[in-house]
Amino acid sequence: MRLILLGPPGSGKGTQAQRLVHKHGIVQLSTGEMLRAAVAAGTPVGMQAKEIMSNGGLVPDEVVVGIISDRLDLPDARRGFILDGFPRTVPQAAALDELLKKKHLKLDAVVELRVNESALLERVETRAAETRARGEEVRIDDTPEVLTNRLAQYRALTEPLIHYYSEKRKLLTVDGMMTIEHVTREINRILAAIGAVEPKPVAAAPAKRAAGAARTGGGATAKKAAKTTKKAGKAGKPASKGTKKPSKAAKKPAKKTVKKAAKKTAKKPAKKVTKRRAKR
Ligand code: AMP
After folding, report:
1. 59 lines ligand 1 (CB under 6 A)
2. Most buried residue, 87, 97, 141, 172, by most Cβ within 10 Å?
């Protein structure tokens, strides 16, 4: 599985990426983490990035694209990866497209975590307090002033990626204001719906049906999910409620037979299968 997690600072990308790593045995590739390691090690890249990062600016595209390109070649990325914090600009996304093409790799989905901006400052402050409580060093860019700049960078340079991936029918939007647990569940559900992961096995027969429907409907479902999230994903508008649209799209393909899943569109969620899953 190859994913991109998209969202502003404090939207929970890192937390959700770690959960996906544990569940699916793939690697998390965080350019922020890699850059912080480079800064700590005092490498030439680190020296170049240090000042920019402490101000909340973006490190030049060619630097991060180079880092990601090298990282994708390491053996542990073969089983799949989650890109966290990359791409952050349209040129980075275009460079990633090229890289993946050259390496004969296909992106499964881009999961956007949509959050209210007003919650971000509080989240980042909580993150800093928790880090301090663990006796670890707090990120120098986790301050209100720098966060303001990071958010401005996100709006200006990263948010256009919502449209970029929506056009490519890769975008799935999840309400990042739900609890961590809910967000994780929702992500896993939509990934199963587009066929990026195997749905959890239920009882033998229904599990087979659900898996088949999700897989077979994969292309169509991804398109529908992308369509739905395209509507939900108009840049700049923070989520206020649940992930109704993506979840409908996510639920639908798991419905009964492949034929039915293909025929019936967005109106009927996969009550049977999801109910069974919910019970377990
Ligand atoms: P993050 O940990 O993802 O919040 O990233 C921390 C900082 O690293 C950002 O504020 C940027 O200065 C830098 N950074 C991380 N990823 C990228 C990227 N893809 N492009 C440019 N700068 C980045």
Report:
1. yes
2. 172
